[in-house]
Amino acid sequence: MGKWRYGVVLDAGSSGTRVHIYRWLRNNKAKEKASGVQLHSLPVIETDKKWTKKIHPGISTFGERPHDVGPEHLDKLLSHALKKIPLEEVPNTPLFLLATAGMRILPSLQQQSVLKEVCDFARSTTQFHLPDCDLHVQVIPGETEGLYGWIAANYLLGGFDQPDKHDHGKGHNTYGFLDMGGASAQIAFAPNATEAEKHANDLTLLRLRTIDGTPLEHRVFVTTWLGFGVNQARQRYVKALLESSTSDELPDPCLPAGLKVDVTKDGTLLDGKADEDEKVDKAAAHLVGTGKFSECLHQTFPLLEKEKECADSPCLINGQHVPAIDFNVNHFVGVSEYWHTTHEIFEKGHKDKAYDFKTYQERVNEFCTQDWDKISQGIEKEKWGGKVDEEKAREVCFKASWIINMLHDGIGVPRVGIEGLPDGTNVTKKVHDKAKAKGFLDPFQAVNKINDVELSWTLGKMVLYASSEIPLASEDALAVGFGSNEPGIPKDFQYPGGIFHHYESASNWHRLFIENPRRIPAFFLMIFIFCFIIGIIIGKERRVRIWAYVTKPWTRKIGKDPLHRRRERSFAAKLLGLGRSQDYERVDLENPDASNDFELEETYLETSDNEHSDSSDGSRFGLTSGWATPAAKNDAGGYFGTAVSGEVLSQGVGLGLNLHSTLNRGGLLSRTESRERMRSPANSPKRREGRWTQDE
User: Fold this and answer.
1) Is 445 inside a domain boundary?
2) For this structure, is 276 an active site residue?
3) Catalytic residue among 117, 143, 145, 337
4) PANTHER family recorded for this chain (predicted)?
5) Quick count: other Cβ atoms within 10 Å of Cβ 628?
6) End position of a domain, from candidates 140, 159, 176
7) Would the pLDDT of 219 be above 70?
8) CB 487 within 8 Å of CB 493
9) What secondary structure does DSSP assign to 636-669, as a single string?
């Protein structure tokens, strides 16, 4: 067993699936190397950019053909993970596939079919630790995705481990989290004390555990807006254009001037690479770019649906309740589309630049008002970097307008560069460079990596899982996980690994029987095979002795069993070679008096012949096979069964009997096993008395 623990998370998004591999020190190893400060910190999770791999499209595209999701999609991702994880650690490595917005849109039956195929394929082709498919392979709610992202952001920024270095005022030391994908958007933050008390029922209780077992508790507000991701918002926007006009040619201010794009009836943009026949079959109309970005901002604003009724005030967008955000203490970081849209084109060469609304909008306006021909030439010359292709350039103007509307008109982030903060702080005088050095204290900052680690919600999932493996510091400490904001363990509490262990043992037996019960049958099969091989090697006599010793405490006393039970051999007896012996003697019976030369041991008539008896009053047969062995008297008055002289041995049947003599005379088969343990009939008092009487 190595010093590292590994974990694999598959982020199954709407546009593709990405595998993330993480590792961390086992708790006993982490304690050995940890300083005082580190002992009060969460486990150190490591990853590498080479440990990630993404493929397209998402698993939601397999809804109508779920049997293909394994060989056509998962195979590449799981193979990649198996190359990075030591072979001996694979059975101990948990595997999670957590699907997000793309799968949430699928019908329930298709969801379940795809998830079942994912689990079956992973179990049949790999040995990853996958004890509970309902937990390890699932479609997670947007709220859970947002909470994992909040954990990851604060983990990387140090809000958990060093709260004194992240004092934002009013006793606040954590950061808010914003995420936007193709189909949904999430927000997660810890409200200030006033709002937290006012909206306590709306918060999620989160419990973590540091390396030394100290529990951490946080109360976080999390919500998701399904349909508010960039792709879904774009689709809603195009459908609104189609409904507002009867013409097949629709002017679109969110496209660069001169660009023409075909769209379907449901608002989907047809890829520029689609062939002409596909465009004719599917296209309902085509958009013609006008390159008027200010008008684009105006037309995307209604997509926020701020006019919807707010049943539980306050609300932000779509009529959904969100506690009031105090931007003096709530500083947000944004990932995914917040980063890609603000940096991949407009911030080239300014990777550490803080988000500045005024500067950002100026750069977007400059790009989007250009003619498409000029933009195409810039792409060929890699004016905006090698990652910018025509598809990204075609989409970025709408995405930028949607990001700006979501941040400032939707969530209410102050327009840094134009507006001041609610407390009157003026932030219009300078552009905020080197956001890392500033401690991410702007109201909003788009990020991709922090300390060279990608900020992904999958990291938050693994931090939670690694934290749950740490032993409790005290018996009254509560489990790691999250649920409703209630004392104790709420009914909806979710454990990171499904089963909560009160302690972690370094014992291999504990890991076998408690942590990995599915390995128990294989373990006992291995023990059986080992014992079987050893039994063959040591031989029959030693097997008999060992069996007698092992069964000694349970052996019944002689004379207790019915005869038919005593004469039967058990499976174990057959396996070990116990029971009736196959050694026989032929005895000369030509003499009519020969029958008198045989005498059954009288002890047999008085006691039981239990093969394995070892009772306190003792059996003179030891490990005999049931029938006592008769003894034959020779002419000299001796007995074949007891003779020790060379002369008698030469006559004794089975101990040197002449072969010719043996073949020409009839005989009686006699059991000879354990001959040395039998009491010779010659020593019987009755026989001696009879002979003395005749002699006299």
Assistant:
1) no
2) no
3) 145
4) ADENOSINE/GUANOSINE DIPHOSPHATASE (PTHR11782), NUCLEOSIDE-DIPHOSPHATASE MIG-23 (PTHR11782:SF121)
5) 22
6) 140
7) yes
8) no
9) TS-BTTT--SHHHHHHSTTTT--HHHHHTS----
